[in-house]
Design goal:
The complex is a heterotrimer of chains A (268), B (576) and C (458).
Chain A: E1 2-8, E2 16-17, H1 23-26, H2 31-35, E3 38-41, E4 44-47, E5 52-55, E6 65-69, E7 76-77, E8 87-90, E9 106-109, E10 125-128, E11 151-154, E12 170-173, E13 177-181, E14 186-192, E15 196-200, E16 206-211, E17 215-217, E18 223-232, E19 235-244, E20 252-253, E21 256-257, E22 260-265
Parallel strand pairs in A: 1-6, 2-7, 6-8, 8-9, 9-10, 10-11, 11-12, 12-14, 13-15, 14-16, 15-17, 16-22
Antiparallel strand pairs in A: 1-5, 3-4, 18-19, 19-22, 20-21
Chain B: E1 5-15, E2 20-30, E3 33-35, E4 43-46, E5 51-54, E6 56-61, H1 66-74, H2 76-80, H3 88-93, H4 106-115, E7 118-126, H5 131-139, E8 145-150, H6 156-163, H7 167-181, E9 187-189, H8 193-197, H9 217-231, E10 237-240, H10 250-258, E11 275-277, E12 285-286, E13 294-295, H11 297-306, E14 310-313, E15 321-326, H12 329-339, E16 344-348, E17 352-360, H13 366-381, E18 388-389, H14 403-411, H15 413-422, H16 426-432, H17 444-458, E19 476-479, H18 490-498, E20 502-505, E21 508-512, E22 515-516, E23 524-530, H19 535-546, E24 567-573
Parallel strand pairs in B: 1-4, 1-5, 6-7, 7-8, 9-10, 10-11, 11-14, 14-18, 23-24
Antiparallel strand pairs in B: 1-2, 2-3, 5-19, 12-13, 15-17, 16-17, 19-20, 20-21, 21-22
Helix pairs in contact in B: 6-7, 6-9, 7-9, 10-11, 11-13, 13-16, 14-15, 14-18
Chain C: E1 3-8, E2 20-24, E3 31-35, H1 39-47, E4 58-60, E5 66-68, H2 71-84, E6 88-92, H3 98-111, E7 114-117, H4 124-133, E8 136-138, H5 140-146, E9 149-153, H6 157-160, H7 164-169, E10 185-189, H8 195-199, E11 202-204, H9 211-222, E12 230-231, E13 234-235, H10 236-248, E14 251-256, H11 258-261, H12 266-280, E15 285-290, H13 298-308, E16 314-315, E17 323-324, H14 331-336, E18 342-346, H15 350-353, H16 356-363, E19 367-370, H17 376-380, E20 383-385, E21 396-399, E22 405-408, H18 421-436
Parallel strand pairs in C: 6-7, 6-18, 9-10, 9-14, 10-11, 14-15, 18-19, 19-20
Antiparallel strand pairs in C: 1-2, 2-3, 4-5, 4-20, 7-16, 12-13, 16-17, 21-22
Helix pairs in contact in C: 2-18, 3-13, 3-18, 4-12, 9-10, 9-12
The complex binds iron/sulfur cluster and zinc ion (2 copies).
């Protein structure tokens, strides 16, 4: 395993589209070659070296490459986007599209993330120690194929539109979320350990949701069917089980209609 | 049109209009037209060892207008599939941005057709009320010449006149509408069914009654064929039949084709058919449901082969993710119920409707594979290639950028077998088709018939497009294929047709080595069939506006001239 | 002799009425009378007579004052500024014809800019919903001729689109609706008792911000399931009754407005409305339509969709492809995040409509306003370039709220020397080509290029 260290030396005047910052793009390159990799600031084609001091050579393959960014990337987009293996660690904040379309490997953001992290993710692991803004693990505009696999774990809170059009994988928000969870989803699991304002599972076809805090406004299309015991992220809870969205279409499996499931702490 | 002289030297000429099949020769062009010879100072293009054909003619594609744009607008994700669109060279030379895969932007549409060596494209369905939109898009589509077919098959005036048996009024209305919309001919989509859709209904049978209008699809088609021949329009009635896309629809398809029996062509444009039946693939289905779904291409083509006054185009499925769009509103509603994807619908007052739904022709799904086979079977069972044209009903069965792939499949059994062998449910597919038993491989001559000479003649444009005879337009495509030694590798056929080695459009080099080098000089082609003023029709049309059945002012209905700044108008007096 | 011009389009609201009659002075420079238009439309035409309309560009001087400059000077400055910027933002087009929108796209491409329009702050969420769920709609004539149930959701046409109800939606006698209003059941869903709500047969006074839940309730009821006792402040029985009315309609027409697009969840409200429309089509015929605000605000969505594949928020900074993702490439987000370094405001007033912080960010960089009149944006700009008014002294195509193209005409002669948007953008483009030593790309030979004749008095 080889580690490439990126030390931010300059804040971009606008923002920097750092789409080259992935183990896949770094693999097999020396620090000097990595400094020459492209990125955009507006319409200007820049180099990674314009914004980062780079030390250490990459491994032979993406899987052999760890990237560590030692400072703030609040104005750097696309960190770890489309990566398939290896790791990226940011000791600070990151801008939009962290781990977007990623297929494998691991991204760890120690600060906060902006919107569209894990967009259309297919595999791998994305961890954020702080908060995420909107559209965690969502689909690209217009695509009905959202997140397909992998895990996103946000240790703080998240905004709106979590797991829109989700098909698979897991999203865990350890604190609160605002509105729209698993809208239009047809699979996957979303766990929110804090409170949610509302619009949980609207237009949802299939998949599972766990909200361990309070839902302020329930969707009218959900109905309680039973109370179950379930393990959620390693802890077992007694949960009320709702099915829905009864206003939406649903498929059948072995003659049975398959609804989406919402689990909330059982009423005492 | 480019001035000056050009000579394309030493290529293998394939020109079915003059029965030239691979003879080595020269093509001379002067002032945008093909001529017998040019002076020694003419610019020379070396075509040695390459195939030379006329510019391609596409008889049916959805490339410009409201529903195409509704598709572009509703599908941002289609842009992701296009990859990087504009080459560095194009960027440097300042060519316009290109985007989209199944529904490319207008710029990309023009450039892609040009790169494939196509000169003329027919936009297959223009809603008359929205005609200015179609013309704005045509204007923004570089290089290729285009025309548009207004839709008539569900038009209130037409249905009214036909119910009353008034051929002359139908004709006068058509002539008026072509003129004010700058349209080319008579398009019919799901006759009666789309009108029924305005109330959420459909006409699946030829003798179903259209609610309120009390005519039947069969009467509409017959009436429009009669009116079309009364006018002697360059093109025939161009029909998308009823019951599209449903298992077992081949019977109604043949019944509809039979409506052409007994109707005689009358025109001075060299056209021989009275009905063009489009995207026949969608209409050649057997079976009682999706489980027993199978090909009836043979049955349909047996009828087509023996009936000289009809032409067809294929509508080949290309096994891509694409966007379906048609004036067959009820069909799109039905389709979104099957695949649950997003659905756009546009009902147009008094005239027509349209629907748009994305569709994935997944090679792992049996039905899609059978559809793929049917499109190719139609071509391979055809006896008269001058009446059988290559299309994908772009973008319905696949994007037009796949024509080279369709050509490859038609020219190579090896290529077809490779696809068949890749199918997950191969055995079940083979039970439902006969493609694997067909050995036929089409020749370059036949491909030129299907993409040049045939469609040009069918559109009544044989004097200008589709051939290389002196006097015709200077549209010449050069493909990197050795006629004498056709590659064993079918991929080379696809590659050659995808990116022409050179394309001369209106006497100007617009593509070189597969890259666009000029934005060309496009034309908008439309028809002005001059008839004496018909007071009844004038009164009916005026009233629809003044009584407010239309919500637009009649003064703003005709497409203004500046919107079609490069007109190529086919103007003639109708002989009563 | 004054001239009466008929079939004139009104360049104000999204109803884009084209039955206006305007009486103009003999020399075609003054509008004397306006017939058929509503009060807003009438005022707009009379406003065009304003003798104080600017006739020359004005440039900000080092001392902060504005000084008149020539058009070539203004064009040169604009071309250079846009070429120099790393990421210019071109925004507006609330009152531009499609010819102008098409011409500006050439500049945007050349400058590597972001191209956006007012939808970004009004019906942008509707676009997002259309991306996700489609748009089962129709032209307004269909509503007029067929609709027997009309739903106004979060919109108040009596105010914002005064002639909408009389031309298209409530009062007119259409082909299958000969009895006009008598034949139509009108539902209004709005937290306020608007004039439209007063006119409606049923007013569902919804709790602000709970549209999404109410749409879901309708859908749940339509599928035969029960719902809670009240949803979004509306009692269950009332919801069931309204659902039944829509279901039993011969043709149900849903119009929605900014009440839906400007509460929490924005696009999802519309998305759910579209799902409801889809569901209703299993029972009857149902269409839905956005009540677009300006007379041609549907235009950029069309023009740019055919040119770039996206209706708004188009990032052209990469020469190879266009990119769109509202939330990132939308004007307000770009401005709030300080992601752009040059701002061109065309025919709208970002100065008045954007959040103050966004305007502050934009003001740090060159700020260009293109507008026929003085407005807040033109007064804070570094450069203000006046143009003709589309629909008054400049003809051209506009798209009505139902995406029907209407060929607007000019009624008076333009101010001498003042270009149309299209002419101005073409000149800027040519200057940019000169500065970069490149050939301009006209899709037609320049000689064949025709601007709509002006004035088009027919
Ligand atoms: S309703 Fe709108 S378009 Fe019609 S006259 Fe009034 S302001 Fe103008
Ligand atoms: Zn069709
Ligand atoms: Zn078609």
């Amino acid at each position: 395993m080889a580690t490439v260290t990126l030390k931010p030396i300059k804040t971009p005047e606008l923002i920097f589209e750092g789409y080259s910052i992935t183990p896949d793009n770094f693999a097999g390159k020396t620090a000097a070659q990595i400094a020459d990799l492209p990125g955009h600031e507006g319409k200007i084609l820049m180099r990674l070296g314009d914004f980062f001091e780079i030390s250490g050579n990459a491994g032979e393959t993406a899987a052999d490459t760890n990237i560590v960014i030692t400072g703030d990337c609040s104005r750097v987009k696309y960190i770890g986007a489309r990566m398939t293996a290896g790791t990226v660690t940011v000791n600070g904040n990151a801008d939009m599209y962290v781990g977007g379309w990623m297929k494998g490997g691991k991204v760890h953001i120690k600060g906060n993330m902006d919107s569209f992290c894990g967009i259309q993710m297919e595999g791998g692991e994305l961890i954020c120690d702080g908060d995420a803004k909107n559209h965690v693990g969502c689909a690209y505009r217009g695509d009905w194929r959202g997140m397909k696999g992998g895990t996103i774990r946000i240790r703080g809170s998240a905004g709106n539109d979590i797991g829109t059009f989700m098909l698979g994988g897991t999203i865990i928000i350890e604190k609160d979320a605002f509105i729209h969870v698993s809208t239009h989803a047809e699979g996957g699991t979303v766990i929110i350990k804090g409170d949610v304002e509302g619009r949980v599972g609207g237009q949802m076809v299939k998949g599972d949701m766990y909200v361990l805090g309070k839902i302020k406004f329930m969707m009218p299309g959900y109905q309680k069917v039973d109370t179950v015991e379930k393990e959620v992220d390693g802890v077992t809870y007694k949960l009320d089980h709702y099915i829905g969205d009864l206003g939406e279409r649903h498929g059948k499996s072995k003659g049975q209609i398959v609804y989406a499931n919402l689990y909330v702490p059982a009423a005492a | 049109m480019a001035q000056g002289e050009l000579i394309i030297k030493g290529g293998f000429i394939v020109d079915p209009t003059r029965k030239i099949n691979g003879d080595v020769g020269d093509v001379a062009i002067k002032d945008g037209k093909i001529v017998e010879k040019v002076s020694s100072s003419a610019k020379v293009i070396d075509a040695k060892g390459k195939v030379v054909m006329a510019g391609g003619v596409d008889v049916h594609a959805h490339v410009a207008g409201p529903k195409v744009n509704a598709g572009r607008l509703m599908r941002p994700e289609d842009k992701l599939r296009a990859g990087t669109c504009r080459s560095n060279m194009a960027q440097k030379n300042g060519y316009r941005m290109e985007s989209g895969f199944s529904i490319p932007s207008t710029f990309k549409t023009g450039y892609e057709y040009a790169r494939m060596g196509y000169a003329f494209v027919m936009e297959a369905a223009m809603p008359p009320l929205l005609a200015p939109h179609t013309h704005e898009e045509i204007h923004d589509t570089p290089i290729i010449d285009e025309a548009a077919l207004p839709v008539f098959g569900n038009n209130w005036f037409v249905m009214d006149y036909i119910r009353k048996g008034e051929v002359e009024n139908t004709a006068a209305y058509i002539a008026w509408l072509l003129k004010v919309t700058k349209g080319y001919g008579v398009k019919v989509v799901n006759p009666g069914g789309t009108a029924a859709w305005a109330w959420g209904l459909n006409c699946l049978g030829l003798n179903d009654r259209v609610p309120y209008f009390e005519v039947t699809p069969a009467e509409i088609m017959t009436g429009l064929m009669e009116a079309n021949e009364y006018l002697g329009l360059p093109h025939s009635m161009h029909v998308h039949q009823n019951d599209l896309g449903n298992p077992g629809n081949y019977a109604i398809t043949i019944d509809s084709l039979k409506l052409a029996e007994g109707i005689k062509t009358k025109n001075k444009f060299g056209r021989e058919q009275v009905m063009h039946s489009t995207h026949l693939q969608f209409h050649s289905y057997g079976g009682e449901g999706w489980g027993t779904f199978c090909s009836k291409a043979k049955e349909v083509m047996d009828y087509v082969n023996k009936t000289k006054n009809i032409t067809i185009d294929l509508g080949c499925v290309t096994l891509d993710e694409t966007t379906t769009m048609t004036a067959d509103g009820p069909f799109e509603h039905h389709l979104h119920g099957l695949n649950h994807l997003k659905w756009t619908n546009v009902d147009v007052e008094m005239e027509t409707a349209a629907g748009v739904v994305p569709y994935v022709y997944d090679p792992n799904i049996k039905v899609c594979d059978i559809q793929w086979a049917i499109g190719l079977e139609l071509a391979l069972y055809a006896k008269d290639m001058d009446r059988t044209f290559i299309t994908t009903d772009h973008p319905n069965a696949g994007p037009f950028t796949r024509y080279p792939r369709v050509i490859k499949w038609l020219m190579s059994k090896q290529a077809r077998d490779a696809v068949l062998n890749s199918f997950k449910h191969k055995d079940k597919v083979l039970d439902a088709i006969s493609l694997h038993t067909i050995k036929r491989e089409l020749s370059l001559f036949e491909i030129a018939q299907m993409t040049r000479a045939g469609p040009a003649k069918c559109l009544g444009l044989g004097a200008y497009y589709g051939g290389l005879a002196p006097g015709m337009l200077g549209d010449v495509a050069i493909y990197d294929l050795n006629f004498k030694d056709m590659p064993r590798d079918p991929e080379k056929i696809e590659a050659a047709f995808q990116r022409a080695a050179c394309f001369v459009k209106s006497g100007e080099i617009v593509v070189k080595d597969g890259e666009v080098v000029s934005n060309g000089h496009k034309k908008t082609v439309w028809v002005n069939a001059k008839m004496p003023e018909n007071p009844q029709v004038t009164r009916d049309v005026t009233q629809a506006f003044t009584k407010g059945t239309y919500t637009m002012d009649i003064r703003n209905y005709p497409v203004r001239d500046y919107l079609a700044p490069h007109p190529f108008v086919i103007e003639y007096d109708v002989e009563a | 002799m004054p001239k009466l011009i008929k079939g004139v389009g009104c360049p104000y609201c999204g109803s884009s009425c084209d039955d206006i009659e305007v009486l103009v002075s003999d020399d075609e420079t003054k509008i004397l009378e306006v017939h058929n238009a509503c009060i807003i439309g009438t005022n707009l035409f009379h406003h065009a007579n304003d003798p104080t309309r600017p006739k020359l560009p004005r440039m900000r001087q080092p001392d902060g004052s504005m000084k008149e400059v020539t058009y070539p000077e203004a064009i040169d400055w604009m071309a250079k500024t846009m070429l120099k910027a790393k990421k210019p933002l071109i925004y507006g087009f609330g009152s531009t014809n499609c010819e102008g929108m098409s011409a500006v796209a050439r500049i945007a491409e050349k400058a590597g800019a972001v191209l956006d329009n007012c939808a970004t702050i009004c019906h942008g969420p509707s676009f997002l919903a259309i991306f996700d769920n489609g748009y089962p709609s129709c032209t307004l004539g269909e509503a007029k001729n067929r609709a027997d149930v009309v739903v106004f959701w979060g919109c108040n046409p009596m105010h914002a689109h005064p002639r909408h109800t009389s031309r298209y939606s409530i009062f007119p006698r259409g082909y299958f609706t000969q009895k006009g209003q008598m034949q139509r059941t009108v539902l209004c869903i709005d937290p306020r008792e608007t004039d439209t709500a007063k006119l409606a047969d049923h007013h569902l006074m919804i709790d602000q911000g709970h549209d999404y839940e109410l749409f879901d309730a309708f859908r749940t009821v339509l599928r035969g399931f029960d719902i809670p006792e009240t949803v979004a402040g509306i009692p269950r029985e009332k919801i069931k009754e309204a659902a039944e009315i829509m279901k039993k309609a011969k043709f149900c027409m849903i119009f929605f407005g900014m009440g839906c697009t400007h509460t929490d969840g924005r696009n999802h409200n519309i998305d759910a409305a579209i799902s409801l429309t889809r569901d209703l089509n299993e029972h009857t015929k149902c269409s839905i339509m956005a009540m677009r605000g300006h007379y041609n605000i549907a235009g950029p969505g069309q023009v740019w969709s055919w040119q770039f594949g996206f209706p708004y928020c188009i990032d052209l900074t990469k020469g190879s492809h266009a990119h769109m993702n509202p939330g990132e490439t939308s004007s307000v987000d770009l401005a709030m995040r300080d992601e752009v370094d040059c701002f061109v405001n065309v025919g709208t007033d970002a100065g008045a409509h954007f959040p103050i912080q966004a305007v502050q960010h934009l003001k740090k960089h060159p700020f260009i306003a293109i507008d026929p009149n003085f407005c807040m944006a033109s007064e804070i700009a570094d450069l203000h370039i006046p143009v003709r008014i589309a629909g008054v002294d400049e003809p051209g195509v506009v798209y009505r709220m139902d995406n029907v193209p209407i060929q607007f005409r000019a009624v008076i002669k333009g101010l001498p020397g003042v270009p149309s948007d299209e002419e101005l953008f073409d000149m800027v483009y040519e200057r940019m080509c000169e500065l970069t030593n490149t050939q301009p790309v006209w899709l037609a030979a320049k000689a064949d290029r025709k601007y709509p004749e002006s004035p088009a008095v027919i």
